[in-house]
Amino acid sequence: MEMALWRCVFIILLKAVWQGPGDVLSQNVTVREGEEAILRCTVLEGAVRRAWLNRSSILFTGDEKWSPEERVSLLKGTKNQYALRINPAEPQDEGSYSCSQQPPGRVGAKIVIFHLSVHVPPHIYNMTGDITTDETSNVSLRCRATGNPEPQVTWKRIVPPGHEWRRSEVSLPSVMRKDAGTYECSARNGVTAPARRRMILTIRYPPVVTEVHGAGAALGETAVLRCEASAQPPPEFTWFRDEHRVVTRHGIRLQTTDSRSLLMFPNVTNDHYGNYTCIASNTLGTSAASNLLHQTPTESTNRVKEDSSHRRGPGLDIHGRACSTHSFSFVAMLFVMMVAVMGLHAD
Ligand SMILES: *[C@@H]1O[C@H](CO)[C@@H](O)[C@H](O)[C@H]1NC(C)=O
Ligand SMILES: *[C@@H]1O[C@H](CO)[C@@H](O)[C@H](O)[C@H]1NC(C)=O
Ligand SMILES: *[C@@H]1O[C@H](CO)[C@@H](O)[C@H](O)[C@H]1NC(C)=O
Ligand SMILES: *[C@@H]1O[C@H](CO)[C@@H](O)[C@H](O)[C@H]1NC(C)=O
Ligand SMILES: *[C@@H]1O[C@H](CO)[C@@H](O)[C@H](O)[C@H]1NC(C)=O
Ligand SMILES: *[C@@H]1O[C@H](CO)[C@@H](O)[C@H](O)[C@H]1NC(C)=O
């Protein structure tokens, strides 16, 4: 392409620009990245010169291609249109394109300016990863996203459901254990569904025993002592009876999860009654609580005791049997004495 023609087109365009708004039309075209963009300019009857420009660089003059860009072509088979095709459209193609035509018998050119927008789905490219920290530390969450239009970035605590921040950087000063959870960053620009990513904030703290449950059981019954604790990292549970660590022999079983320990006695014997201490510990500390496994009357005596309030009299031999099996238990003794007193009153 000779310099002369280039200069010619340039001059035509310059003239057109100075000719006033009547001859400059403007049009918006929006496509998504990767799609085809077609800019359609209606052919003026008998126009002598035509050109397509990308900003100020020439893409085509007439049917002759100036641009080295392979993605650019003229749409074929469109008699009434001088149409530019960009396939696939890329983000850097966004900008102004102009179609210029010189109508017959006029000096100036008629120009249509196309504002091409190339939309890009949101993409999160830099985000804070999982954090494990201690209470009172300052935590900051960062989430950077690209996209066109510029995405709106939002942080939200989703597990457990919590606060939402409409910004990409969030400061959590002096975090407490209640701040722990799963946080999600989402970037939204309306081109596709929002981009989302999650991170987990873990706050470490020493154990706190939140609940202990003693139990009462008769000989031969099943008993469960329960100890619940919260801690991060999750606590280890140990059980003591007086100064001795409880071993899971002698008919004792242990069932422990991250937050709970069950000391189970499938078949309570006299040796099992006592004061048990549950200790929850992690690297940051320990917490302890005590609970009692105490003896209660056997089920059969319970039933009889209920019955005896209605039918006075018989049942003394049953009390006697209870006495013989519980003879070494103080609690049982107490119970028997109680029933005996009741029996006296009944008489
Ligand atoms: C093109 O878009 C701009 C904003 O992006 C708007 O101001 C203008 O009115 C639009 N023009 C046409 C012809 O739609
Ligand atoms: C338009 O020009 C811009 C900037 O010079 C360039 O990055 C882009 O690839 C061009 N696009 C086309 C379709 O020519
Ligand atoms: C993310 O942003 C942080 C803070 O600006 C920077 O230090 C880090 O290098 C970035 N990471 C990546 C993968 O770009
Ligand atoms: C947290 O930030 C506050 C003020 O912004 C500062 O006084 C404090 O020392 C910080 N704490 C830590 C653990 O960095
Ligand atoms: C419970 O223990 C006693 C004494 O050791 C035994 O006689 C009894 O059979 C046991 N009961 C069960 C259900 O295992
Ligand atoms: C059980 O033992 C703990 C620790 O040894 C003690 O503090 C608590 O008073 C005891 N409880 C009972 C009911 O004896």
Automatic annotation (TrEMBL):
Signal peptide: 1-19
Domain of life: Eukaryota
Region (Disordered): 296-317
GO CC annotations, alphabetized: cell-cell junction; plasma membrane
Pfam family name, one: I-set
Topology class, membrane: Single-pass type I membrane protein
Entry-linked InterPro entries: Cell_adhesion_signaling, Ig-like_dom, Ig-like_dom_sf, Ig-like_fold, Ig_I-set, Ig_sub, Ig_sub2
GO molecular function: cell adhesion molecule binding
Alphabetical UniProt keywords: Disulfide bond, Glycoprotein, Immunoglobulin domain, Membrane, Signal, Transmembrane, Transmembrane helix
Protein name per Swiss-Prot or TrEMBL: IgLON family member 5
Organism of this sequence: Eptatretus burgeri
